[in-house]
């Protein structure tokens, strides 16, 4: 089960934000994240805020769209006090498995956002999907509802790797749904995980080549992190499977970078590649660029103008608070300048666009980063810190050296 919510200061029952959240709001993009916390099974590596049918205890999938619509109405009141003029630039349905809900339910929530806030011209609307949780008819229905992009959880093309991850889909299903999404006029992205215990370098090449052969517009690839409390962590602790090999992770990343470049993909964030640089995830870029977003649903986090807040984690608690006319948010923090500066540095050094050196109080470490081959020298001399391939493998270390 997911862990406890973070600590924080109390949130007023009406969800009102501090006045500071409105400073400069008109100049910032506004996005919406809708968390759909339902899964058929819990994958052994996952520590996301998700629930199987047996874990819902008083909550239901059927009532979920109405609960999110209640939070949308609350968000309109709260954000109306900050800046009532902004429309949504991006919408992202994540989870969990959003496509466990019928397409009509996802459409109701999307239409609620559109009717309440409006969508900018060309807004990006993404839905995450497991390959076995959607079909061609469902994809066509999503496109008709206004979805523009689908992100498929491929993870691997190798059956024994999928088994270790407790993924249940047939790898042969992935090309079918990607092709169906494309036929429906949707942009496509595939998510991969590398470094699973027992996964060889050849296994990883197989998965990577299979993903590229799908011709998606976007690939995300994440090194497996074994989170405490997960079934995978327990299996490693008991010695049932080998621990993760960090050196192999690095080698896999180098293969990933070379192979995607050969296929015409450009990296724009440490774990994300866009074909020809044409289709990065604008929603995720909004997180990395410190935009505003409202996270709807159990456990979802939101941010506006340096104020961050988070909802009750269990779907039943989330629903009960909304039914009582209260905000579902159970805690928040107002970021001080030092924290905001650290986060801008931490995120900036993960991006191809780099970090503006003017954000640094002390530029002394920059020369050492150049000498160690962690940032590109020409870009640094021009005022931006852009990580090299080696630097991308050590992005967190770069951030620590800069602060």
TrEMBL record:
**UniProt entry keywords in alphabetical sequence:** 4Fe-4S, Chaperone, Cytoplasm, Heme, Iron, Iron-sulfur, Metal-binding, S-adenosyl-L-methionine
Lineage, top-rank taxon, reads Bacteria
Q: Name one GO cellular component term.
A: cytoplasm
UniProt-listed PROSITE patterns: RADICAL_SAM
Q: Which GO terms describe its molecular function?
A: 4 iron, 4 sulfur cluster binding; coproporphyrinogen oxidase activity; metal ion binding
Where does it primarily localize? cytoplasm
Any single GO BP term: porphyrin-containing compound biosynthetic process
Q: Where is the Radical SAM core domain?
A: 24-266
Give a Pfam family name. Answer: Radical_SAM
* Database matches in InterPro entries: Aldolase_TIM, Coproporphyrinogen-III_oxidase, Elp3/MiaA/NifB-like_rSAM, HemW-like, rSAM, rSAM_sf
Q: Where in the cell is it found?
A: Cytoplasm
In which family does this protein belong, per the annotation?
Belongs to the anaerobic coproporphyrinogen-III oxidase family. HemW subfamily.
Q: Which PANTHER family match?
A: COPROPORPHYRINIGEN III OXIDASE, RADICAL S-ADENOSYL METHIONINE DOMAIN-CONTAINING PROTEIN 1, MITOCHONDRIAL
Protein task = Probably acts as a heme chaperone, transferring heme to an unknown acceptor. Binds one molecule of heme per monomer, possibly covalently. Binds 1 [4Fe-4S] cluster. The cluster is coordinated with 3 cysteines and an exchangeable S-adenosyl-L-methionine.
Q: What is this protein called?
A: Heme chaperone HemW
């Amino acid at each position: 089960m997911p862990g406890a919510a973070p600590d924080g200061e109390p949130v007023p029952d009406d969800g009102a934000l501090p006045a500071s959240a409105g400073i400069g709001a008109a100049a910032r993009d506004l996005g919406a994240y809708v968390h759909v916390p339902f899964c058929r099974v819990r994958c052994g590596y996952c520590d996301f805020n998700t629930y199987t049918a047996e874990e819902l205890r008083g909550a239901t999938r059927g009532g979920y769209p109405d609960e999110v619509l209640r939070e949308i109405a609350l968000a309109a009141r709260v954000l109306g006090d900050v800046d009532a003029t902004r429309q949504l630039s991006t919408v992202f349905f994540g989870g969990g498995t959003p496509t466990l809900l019928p397409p009509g339910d996802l459409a109701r929530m999307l239409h609620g956002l559109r009717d309440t806030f409006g969508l900018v011209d060309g807004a990006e609307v993404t839905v995450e999907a497991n390959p076995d949780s959607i079909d061609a008819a469902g994809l066509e229905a999503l496109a008709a509802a206004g979805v523009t992009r689908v992100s498929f959880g491929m993870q691997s093309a190798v059956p024994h790797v999928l088994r270790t991850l407790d993924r249940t889909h047939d790898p042969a299903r992935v090309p079918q749904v990607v092709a169906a999404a494309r036929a429906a006029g949707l942009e496509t992205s595939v998510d991969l995980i590398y470094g699973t215990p027992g996964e060889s370098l050849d296994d990883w090449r197989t998965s990577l080549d299979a993903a590229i052969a799908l011709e998606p517009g976007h690939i995300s690839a994440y090194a497996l992190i074994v989170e405490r409390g997960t079934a995978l962590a327990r299996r490693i602790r008991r010695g049932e499977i080998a621990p993760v090999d960090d050196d192999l992770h690095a080698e896999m990343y180098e293969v990933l970078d070379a192979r995607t470049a050969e296929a015409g993909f450009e990296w724009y964030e440490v774990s994300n590649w866009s074909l020809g640089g044409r289709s990065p995830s604008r929603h995720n870029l909004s997180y990395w660029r410190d935009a505003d977003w409202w996270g709807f649903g159990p456990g979802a986090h939101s941010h506006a103008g340096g104020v961050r807040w988070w909802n009750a984690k269990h779907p039943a608690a989330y629903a009960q608070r909304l039914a009582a006319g209260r905000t579902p948010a159970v805690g928040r923090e107002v970021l001080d300048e030092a924290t905001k500066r650290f986060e801008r540095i931490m995120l900036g050094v993960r991006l191809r666009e780099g970090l503006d050196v003017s954000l640094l109080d002390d530029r002394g470490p920059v020369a050492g980063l150049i000498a160690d081959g962690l940032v590109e020298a020409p870009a640094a001399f021009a005022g931006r810190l852009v990580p090299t391939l080696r630097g991308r493998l050590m992005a967190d270390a770069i951030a620590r050296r800069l602060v």
